Amino acid sequence: MKVTFLGTGSGSTKGSARFKSGILIESKGAKVVLDFGSGIHMRLEDLGVIPDAVFVTHLHIDHFSGIFDHLVRRKIDNISPLRVFTLKEFGRILEAVKNSNDIDAIVHESRFPNATIEDLEIYSIEACHKIPAVSYVVTDGRKSVIYTGDTAEPCEPILNEIPRADLVIHEASCLDDCKAWGHTSIKEALRYVEKPVLTHIPSQIEKGVQNLVGDKAIIARDGMSIDV
Ligand SMILES: [Zn+2]
Ligand SMILES: [Zn+2]
């Protein structure tokens, strides 16, 4: 599998250095996107990638608002409808703007979204956030990747799943403590996870992040790819 970071900024990130959340996972047969914040549609267009499906971790705006721009692109270019796997309520949000924009998508709502897309199996587990949220595990049968989405550690379901993963993509939204907002700090991510790839980072704390992380983790950046 090839993992490409389309957007690595938190909801609070400023400017264009890091777009909001989005990760592309490509296998031999499938292209899926985990979360689809603002800017992700532009990254996909730059790469010339049309995803087969999108999996949304939760309904905070920085994790799904880019989908609407992408649906407009699909309409203009006459591309088949996007499949969106999501928690409840996304369908209602889409419904509100669908007719006025002449866009559509095939929405699969579930408390724990899961699907098989060609050679990729995707399933979700409970994350520990301010609102209902999941983490996704993606596997091609040989290797597996876990993407936490937004979560505050220690989060038991995630910590139980992590030892089985070949690559751990973990959120890290502040330097010290952001539990009150349902997030994990850089310090906590390093304490609970061995060699994670850190994402969901506010660009305004970039220097502090680098100083704390050193060689203990990989700091994801927009455009970075990792082969798993
Ligand atoms: Zn977020
Ligand atoms: Zn969130």
UniProtKB/TrEMBL annotation:
GO terms for molecular function: 3'-tRNA processing endoribonuclease activity. SUPFAM superfamilies: Metallo-hydrolase/oxidoreductase. Keywords: Hydrolase. It comes from the Archaea. Residues 19-204 form the Metallo-beta-lactamase domain. Signal peptide: none annotated. This is MBL fold metallo-hydrolase.
